[in-house]
């Protein structure tokens, strides 16, 4: 197998995936295009119709009222609220630390030529909060909290009408300014286009199902999006020090997300590969979510045996997994050799599950090898870095002559005149 940077022998698969992770998206594309077109022309009427059709919901009002927020908060179990606030505190602290690294700039690169940039928070952001089979209480935290830390003017949250009430409480605690009970592609269309009820946003963030993902793809342009995230992924890199029980447990923890979750082990140690294969089967026999985890493991799970550390690194970088765990003898040193991943978990004590829930790094991450060119959601997602310049007379003398000459060689007379005018006036 070869990529643009590294050549290596294809691994030996102790367990190969039965299906490709790339699915036929044509039917989804057509349905989503119809949803967007109707929301554009009919607004709330279309949103209400799709809520009835897809969610079995017939809500009179989409927006969650202050009284409904208070009720959801009051119904939240005390321990659940404490755990939610623990996660919010960690995500906020890390986002604030990240924000502290984003300095503004002004520099005089030549005499009289001053260049700079500013970091400006977005005015209004839409956070899609998936409902899922279970109430994913960490989902609103990961999208809403960094937006508030970044200084976004207004944060809109959309979640499916049938989402667990605890999700409303989670959106409230995370700092959402407005919360709407709208799910699926119609939620993305409403936030992107604006309706009589839902305000138009500048950027849409957050994971969702295939319809949500496709809707984000189709509305991109007039509004920004964070990324096109597919089903969850986890890969573990392990040498002969790997613990089969721990690795199998972590693989299945992600596999229970979705029947299309991609999970894998890349190892240099055949006995470990075979032990993990057996251990996954042993644990599936008692896992309460096996109806989801087993199809994911059967269809997309893999155990790849490679010759040496270099091959392990090369194959891992080609996969560019969303979550990448390092279980080697010296995991910190090994981690510095890896380049492509969504988020890295160094050492066997650092489980993906901790980040999924509450440790502080964001769990909204690139999938389907997008880790080769982008990172995950972070406070910078909600900020635009914009440049500026100002020149004094000496600066004009520096840049006007080459600018005018370049414009003339390109045949752009208007450009040449604009470059020359200020210089001529200074010389006059």
TrEMBL record:
Transmembrane segments: none
Protein residues bound to NAD(+): 128, 186, 209
Required co-factors: Zn(2+)
PANTHER family documented for this protein: HISTIDINOL DEHYDROGENASE, HISTIDINOL DEHYDROGENASE HDH
NCBIfam families from the UniProt entry: hisD
Binding site for Zn(2+): 254, 257, 356, 415
This protein's GO CC annotations: cytosol
Keywords noted in UniProt: Metal-binding, NAD, Oxidoreductase, Zinc
Pfam family name, one: Histidinol_dh
Family of the protein in this entry: Belongs to the histidinol dehydrogenase family.
GO biological process, one term: L-histidine biosynthetic process
Record protein name field: Histidinol dehydrogenase homolog
Molecular function terms, GO-annotated: histidinol dehydrogenase activity; metal ion binding; NAD binding
Residues annotated as binding substrate: 232, 254, 257, 323, 356, 410, 415
PROSITE patterns in the record: HISOL_DEHYDROGENASE (PS00611)
Cofactor note: Binds 1 zinc ion per subunit.
Active-site annotation: 322-323
């Amino acid at each position: 197998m070869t990529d643009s940077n590294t050549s290596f022998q294809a691994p030996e698969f102790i367990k190969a995936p039965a299906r490709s992770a790339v699915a036929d998206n044509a039917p989804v594309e057509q349905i989503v295009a119809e949803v967007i077109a109707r929301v554009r022309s009919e607004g709330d009427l279309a949103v209400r119709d799709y809520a009835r059709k897809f969610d079995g919901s017939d809500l009179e009002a989409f927006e969650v009222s202050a009284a409904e927020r208070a009720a959801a908060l009051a119904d939240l179990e005390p321990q659940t609220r404490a755990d939610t606030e623990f996660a919010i505190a960690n995500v906020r602290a890390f986002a604030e630390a990240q924000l502290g690294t984003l300095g503004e700039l002004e520099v005089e690169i030549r005499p009289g030529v001053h260049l700079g940039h500013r970091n400006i928070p977005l005015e209004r952001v839409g956070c899609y909060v998936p409902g899922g089979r279970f109430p994913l209480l960490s989902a609103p935290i990961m999208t809403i909290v960094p937006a508030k830390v970044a200084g976004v003017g207004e944060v809109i949250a959309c979640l499916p009408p049938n989402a667990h009430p605890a999700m409303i409480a989670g959106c409230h605690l995370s700092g959402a300014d407005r919360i709407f009970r709208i799910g699926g592609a119609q939620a993305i269309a409403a936030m992107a286009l604006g309706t009589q009820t839902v305000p138009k946003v500048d950027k849409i963030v957050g994971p969702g199902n295939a319809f949500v993902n496709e809707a984000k793809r189709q509305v991109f342009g007039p509004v920004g999006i964070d990324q096109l995230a597919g089903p969850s992924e986890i890969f573990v890199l392990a040498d002969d020090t790997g613990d089969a029980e721990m690795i199998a447990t972590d693989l299945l923890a992600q596999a229970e997300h979705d029947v299309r979750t991609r999970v894998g082990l890349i190892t240099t140690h055949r006995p470990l590969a075979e032990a993990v294969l057996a251990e996954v089967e042993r644990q599936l026999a008692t896992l309460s979510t096996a109806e989801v985890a087993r199809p994911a493991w059967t269809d997309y799970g893999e155990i790849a045996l490679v010759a040496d550390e270099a091959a392990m690194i090369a194959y891992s970088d080609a996969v560019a997994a969303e979550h990448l765990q390092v279980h080697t003898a010296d995991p910190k040193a090994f981690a510095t050799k890896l380049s492509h991943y969504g988020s890295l978990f160094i050492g066997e004590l650092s489980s993906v599950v901790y980040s999924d829930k509450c440790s502080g790094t964001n769990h909204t991450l690139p999938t389907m090898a997008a880790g080769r060119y982008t990172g995950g959601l972070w406070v910078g997602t909600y900020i635009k870095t914009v440049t500026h310049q100002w020149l004094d007379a000496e600066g004009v003398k520096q840049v006007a002559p080459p600018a005018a000459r370049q414009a003339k060689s390109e045949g752009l007379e208007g450009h040449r005149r604009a470059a020359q005018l200020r210089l001529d006036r200074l010389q006059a």
